[in-house]
Amino acid sequence: MNKRTDKGRLPPFVPLDKEMMRSPAWRAMSYGARCLYTHLKGRWSFKQRNNGRVFLSQRDDQEEMGCRHRDSISGWFRELQHYGFIVMTEPGCLGLEGKGSKAKARHRTGA
Questions:
Q1: Burial class (CB in 10 A: 0-12, 13-18, 19+), 4
Q2: pLDDT tens-digit readout, 29-57
Q3: Backbone φ, ψ for residue 107 (5° rounding)
Q4: pTM reported for the whole predicted model
Q5: Which of these, 70, 74, 62, 82, lies nearest to 103 by C-alpha position?
Q6: Distance from chain centroid for Cα 24
Q7: How many Cβ atoms sit within 10 Å of the Cβ of residue 25?
Q8: With the CA atoms of 110, 67, 94 and 81 taken in that order, what torsion angle do they form, in degrees rounded to the nearest 10?
């Protein structure tokens, strides 16, 4: 980009609150759950107001994170729910045609 089109804008990033990172719940979570939270938070957009419609399937997250086992990702989702960082608003399921419907989650921090 040249200086005229850049206008001092930052590249896309995922903000994490320092206060949240100091909380006992954040410190009690595993590193995998923390990484999963940053991937979910990266899909959240204030401008689009998509809180409650943020979704990330276990297969997509497995590919993004480079994780070998999908079982560990499901455990991290449960861990995030247990500590109150996300709330599942709609569970994933198979539709009538056998195509998967992705689970949707709401961020506690973005609500």
A1: exposed
A2: 999 999 999 888 888 776 667 666 777 77
A3: -80, 135
A4: 0.75
A5: 74
A6: 20
A7: 12
A8: -40
